[in-house]
Design goal:
Number of helices: 24
Helix content: 40-55%
CATH superfamily of the largest domain: EAL domain
CATH class of the largest domain: Alpha Beta
Distance between the termini: 66 Å
Bound molecules: ligand C2E, calcium ion
Largest sheet: 8 strands, mixed, barrel
Number of strands: 25
CATH architecture of the largest domain: Alpha-Beta Barrel
CATH topology of the largest domain: TIM Barrel
Strand order of the largest sheet: 17-18-20-21-22-23-24-25
Shape: rod-shaped
Strand content: 15-25%
Length: 741
Amino acid sequence: MTLWPDFQTATTMPTTESAKLGRKLSLVIMTSVLVVFAVIFGLLGSFVLWTADEVDEDALDRQSRRVAYFVRGQLDAIPYDQQSITIWDDMLVALRDNDERWLHINVGKWTFDYFGHDESYILAGDQPVYASVGGEDTDPDTYERRRDQTLGLVEQLRGLTSAGYVDVPPFTSDFVLIDGKPAIISVSPIVSDTGNIQQQAGREPLLVSVVHLDSDYELRLIQRYQLEAGHFTSRPGGTALGTLPVTNRAGRIVTFYEWQPYRPGETLMQRTTPALAGAFIIILIVVIALLAVLWRSSSALESKSAEAERQASIDLLTGLPNRLNFDRQFEHRLSVLALRDPPLALMMLDLDRFKQVNDTLGHHAGDELIRAVGERLAGILGPTDVLARLGGDEFAILHICHAGSVEVSALAQRIVDAIARPFRVQGTDAFVGVSIGIVITGAGILDSRELSRKADIALYEAKSGGRNRAAIYEQSMDELVQGRHVIEAELREALRAPGQLWVAFQPLCGRDDGQIIGAEALLRWTHPTLGVVAPLQFIAIAESTGLIEQLGEFVLRRAAQFGARWPHRTIAVNISPAQLRNPTFPERVFAILDETGMEPSDLEMEITEGILLDDESTVARAIHKFRQAGISIALDDFGTGYSSLNYLKRYPVDRIKIDRSFVSQLTNADGTEAIIQAMVTLAHALGIEVTAEGVETEVQYRILAAKGCNTFQGYLFSPPLTVGDMTALLTGAQTEVPEVA
Ligand code: C2E
Ligand code: CA
Ligand code: CA
């Protein structure tokens, strides 16, 4: 038997959904925070990358335009270089004089050193007259290897110059491939700068310059124009590089200029990435730390609420599940009960005589007893059983009936036997018992309340069947309960409609002369269809439904009306505990006495011992008030309760009524006589009168009279009578009382 059966499953049951939901929720929140964070950073990152890319593309575009401008510009730049020497009288003079030294210094060396022109040729007519390669003079015939490529340019230029020109002489230049390698050939006419030397238009000597677009020239280009580092190539490579197709004047691609583009976006990225990554990591750490704190505090909250829930679901006294927890588990078990599963038994336990133990030994003893009962029960049950304390002296058990109702009955019997054994509580043995109501159910029935109701009915049955036993619910029990409901409804109706309820009076006779010294008022109910309903059938129901207060007042009023007409006769009225517990009861009693004119000293209240066990001050105060007003108190059904004599000292009473059961057993010779003798002796010693009730035979009467009983009541003298018969009896005849032997 576990004290915490299925607590884990209990926490996963409906009412703990909230905790689960909370955990889920915080998980959802945290994941979404992380996702949002990741998305924001992703978007930010993509945006930065995209911007960098845009910037780079933009920059590349600008670079391409710049490169194109400068590279294509070479076709003008080289003629411009040439013009530094081709518009010059000295040059024409040197040519005329064939001044080789002058030509070497001012043409071959100068253009090579200063402009990087790799080859220079001077043509006079169509004949080469001077040649220089790499700044060194060489045989003019070297020109022949370039003749084919320069032919077009030369002829074109001759056309231009022969057409005449103003100010600046024309030139021709183009990109060409020399031995598969790119080069620029530029042709300019050599003319007089002063105009002093006359020449025939179209017959001017020509300077032909060849510039190989090689690494030297590339370097020159880069330095001169602050271009991005690059080179000419016939086969452009990577897409990461900037590429400019270099076309000749005819529009044909001669070569490509390729360069490592400057990428400001990428550079910016490279510079800022570490910082951004650092920031990202720091923010990520902060976010994760915050989430961790959130998670920790939310799970702390959760475990706190789980603990609170656990606390709320256990009974603090026994540590067993409480009603709430039990109901939850019961509902859960019902919901998972399958057709093939063995049936489930719900057992409701109620301790008998617990209240007495609690009252006599104190609340601490009561608590100790409840704990001990819990432990004893736990010791009997199996691991799959659920034991709970529902409150007060009520326990409940869920039991799987592997072997049907026989087994459940056996278990119930073991429990009854175990609880019947004395409990050692605060140094004394306490005796309690247990009544058990059982309902057995199979799959498909989910109404736990209905099942609890049935178990309660069975429990009621077990109790009314003599306690200390178990009863398994049957349909017929429901009918009984149904009967109780009918009685209750009909009783309410009877209280409204006059005539059904009336009061009978049973004479009380004196000891010596048979004189009627009074009467006991007894409630009677004659129902229009049910007929006469005995008090035993409805008093208990009236007590449990609260109707007894109205009924009691009805009887009291009738009794008082009768008593007012017959003063100096004791009129005994049965008072129910519920009436006495009502603080306004004494007021109402006195009001009725006033209203009817009955003398308080003629009224006797019959109370049962049970009420004296209540240590409620209301009851004690009421009794005290009544006695002070002269109303006498009789203890009814004396001898049937427990430890009655103790209470006689605590609560002074005027009379005890020895219960019928003693009187009827008088002749059985089983010690009853001695018991009665003891009761009478004791009562008399305390100054208390004794009435014997239920006297049916003369023999009983004689014995009781001999024992010293003061008053007698029973069929031997008279049954309860109507007011009319009672009045007739009082006015007329004397009851025949046998002689005392
Ligand atoms: P009780 O107070 O012990 O009342 C005496 C019962 O014994 C009455 O039964 C009476 O009819 C019956 N009785 C009288 N003489 C004899 C006899 O010689 N032999 C036998 N066998 N019985 C005799 P009744 O009227 O059926 O009442 C039963 C119980 O109902 C009463 O027991 C009392 O506890 C309760 N009761 C009756 N009227 C009232 C009432 O007005 N208020 C309250 N609170 N309870 C009442
Ligand atoms: Ca009575
Ligand atoms: Ca009685």
